[in-house]
């Protein structure tokens, strides 16, 4: 038998409580971003891959145009859109300030 004490012996396990559930639409998450997506409208083929894979639903088609843009209030800058873009029309650029 070992003389070392189990560090988890007196660990109190609790459950988390969500007092008021929300969605990312209620909680603007764009301020978390270090990088932002910049779309080249001439390269974008309007395929919608960015919108499909965006975890925050920040990618939206520009009305009357053939390219997508991002709602910076909700974009966290994860870069998934740039990774899935088949034409490399999205470049992740470091945020200023």
UniProtKB/TrEMBL annotation:
SUPFAM superfamilies per record: 4Fe-4S ferredoxins
GO molecular function, one term: electron transfer activity
Gene3D superfamilies reported in the protein's UniProt record: 3.30.70.20
Iron-sulfur recorded as keyword: yes
Oxidoreductase found in the keyword field: yes
Every 4Fe-4S ferredoxin-type domain range: 35-64, 66-95
InterPro entries: 3Fe4S_ferredoxin (IPR001080), 4Fe4S_Fe-S-bd (IPR017896), 4Fe4S_Fe_S_CS (IPR017900), PorD_KorD (IPR011898)
Superkingdom of the source species: Archaea
Keywords: 4Fe-4S, Electron transport, Iron, Iron-sulfur, Metal-binding, Oxidoreductase, Pyruvate, Repeat, Transport
Cofactor: [4Fe-4S] cluster
Main function: Ferredoxins are iron-sulfur proteins that transfer electrons in a wide variety of metabolic reactions.
Record note on quaternary structure: Heterotetramer of one alpha, one beta, one delta and one gamma chain.
Name of the protein in question: Ferredoxin
Organism: Halapricum desulfuricans
């Amino acid at each position: 038998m070992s003389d070392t004490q189990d560090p988890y012996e007196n660990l109190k396990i609790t459950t988390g409580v969500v007092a008021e559930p929300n969605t990312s639409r209620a909680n603007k998450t764009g301020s978390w971003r270090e990088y932002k997506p910049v779309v080249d409208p001439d390269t974008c083929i309007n395929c919608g891959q960015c919108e499909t894979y965006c975890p925050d639903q920040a990618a939206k088609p520009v009305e009357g145009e053939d390219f997508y843009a991002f709602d910076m209030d909700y974009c966290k800058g994860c870069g998934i859109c740039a990774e899935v873009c088949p034409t490399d029309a999205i470049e992740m650029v470091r945020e200023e300030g």
